[in-house]
Design a protein that fits this description.
- Strands 1-9-8-7-4-2-3 form a 7-stranded mixed beta sheet, with helices on both faces. A 3-stranded antiparallel beta sheet has the order 10-11-12. A two-stranded antiparallel sheet has the order 5-6.
- α1 (28-36) packs across α8 and α9 (270-290) packs parallel to α11 (356-373).
- The protein has 11 helices and 12 strands.
- The longest helix is centred in the last third of the chain and has 21 residues, at 270-290.
- With 374 residues, it is an alpha/beta fold.
- It folds into 2 domains: 10-26 and 271-373, Aspartate Aminotransferase, domain 1 (Alpha-Beta Complex); 37-267, Aspartate Aminotransferase, domain 2 (3-Layer(aba) Sandwich).
- Helices cover 37% and strands 14% of the residues.
């Protein structure tokens, strides 16, 4: 691919040019705070009070952000959301699960459940990328939703299906949605995510907010004698989390940056603040695209368009890969489409740490590049 030399004027550039969907922008203030404690934090024991207090701060911060009712617990472990799919097949699903599949990441949990030899094949409710399926009542003991499909920019409300059995757990992949999209804790039993998106940290951890029903399920499966690898044992993670630690060594920088972002979110108004900020960015992005003859929001139903990940199709006469490459050469990075979707598309994060004014500047940069390409 030949990339033309196009210089974007400085007055069009955003203050921060990071728009990746994960890893995402880490605020400079958080990095400065980490640097300030580097000699007393990095390279220290995760079993000692300084680190355990930060883990406790993280757990309390998530509880505050999500307004978790009494009895809900925040669990964390190593490996990210991808690892949690395997964790859930061992420690949360009893017999079989139901999965709503509408993109790359929602499909992977279903595949993990199907591959588990101790579970029955899952029920899969699917639709083509760019939309979301409607809820269908199921007898599955776990139903699996995806709050935000990162690959396509479709968001899904978190709610319980009418007619579902009382013992059915609602397990929500909130990897890119948590912290940026509205949610009510009573609508879920397990709301899991990773810190490298809305929480402006690095990868390598999974976190899960679990209801009393989910905690009871975890404890019961553990007591049943089911074989579970120690590193994937949800009860082991629960037991360690109650002690404000992880089963094995976590990335300390990830924990510290996560705590910094949670403090910033909660000090500025919690989920009401972060969701309003993301909605502002989304309104700017989609309004811009709809006003252009050569740009179209990929998600046609406005009610399904994500407030944290925007996917914008470009006219066939404009190579989106070239646009992304020119933007990158000018310091505006990670606007590339999801590789497996295979569309002539830009994909941009609008997580809470990203300033809505920078989203506006990003659109001005795209306008400039497209005009220069002729």
């Amino acid at each position: 691919m030949s990339v033309p030399e196009i210089n974007i004027p400085a007055d069009l550039l955003p203050q921060d040019g990071r728009f990746g969907c994960g890893p995402s922008k880490v605020p400079s203030a958080a990095m400065a705070a980490l640097a300030a404690v580097s000699s007393t934090w990095m390279g220290t024991s995760h079993r000692q009070d300084p680190v355990k207090k930060v883990v406790g701060r993280v757990r309390a911060g998530i509880g505050s952000l999500l307004s978790l009712p009494a009895g809900y617990e925040v669990i964390l472990g190593n490996g990210g959301s991808t690892a949690f799919w395997d964790v859930a097949t061992f420690g949360l699903i009893e017999q079989f699960s139901q999965h709503y599949v509408f993109g790359e990441f929602s499909s992977k949990f279903a595949e993990a459940a199907k591959a588990a030899p101790h579970l029955r094949d899952p029920e899969v409710v699917s639709c083509a990328p760019g939309a979301r399926p409607a809820l269908v009542a199921s007898l599955a003991d776990v139903t699996c939703l995806t709050h935000n499909e990162t690959s396509t920019g479709v968001m899904m409300p978190v709610e319980r299906a009418a007619g579902a059995p009382e013992n059915q757990l609602v397990c929500v992949d909130a990897t890119s949605g948590a912290g940026g999209l509205a949610v009510h804790a009573t609508a879920f039993d397990c709301y899991y995510f990773a810190p490298q998106k809305s929480f402006a940290s690095d990868g390598g951890l999974w976190l899960a907010a679990c209801s009393p029903a989910a905690v009871e399920r975890i404890e019961r499966i553990s007591a049943s004698g089911r074989w579970i690898p120690a590193s994937l044992d949800l009860f082991t993670a629960l037991d360690n989390s109650r002690k404000d630690q992880t089963y094995n060594t976590p990335a300390l920088a990830t924990l510290f940056l996560l705590a910094q972002q949670l403090d910033w979110m909660n000090e500025n108004g919690g989920l009401a603040f972060t969701t309003a900020r993301c909605a502002d960015s989304a309104n700017r992005m989609y309004s811009w695209a709809e006003a252009r003859s050569w740009a179209t929001p990929f998600v046609t139903d406005p009610s399904q368009r994500s407030n944290v990940v925007a996917t914008i199709d470009l006219d066939a006469s404009i190579d989106a890969n070239v646009v992304s490459a020119v933007l990158r050469a000018n310091g505006v990075v990670d606007t590339d489409s999801y590789r497996k979707l295979g569309r002539n598309q830009l994909r941009m994060a609008m997580f809470p740490a990203i300033d809505p004014d920078d989203v506006t500047q990003l659109t001005r940069c795209i306008d400039h590049v497209v005009a220069a390409l002729g």
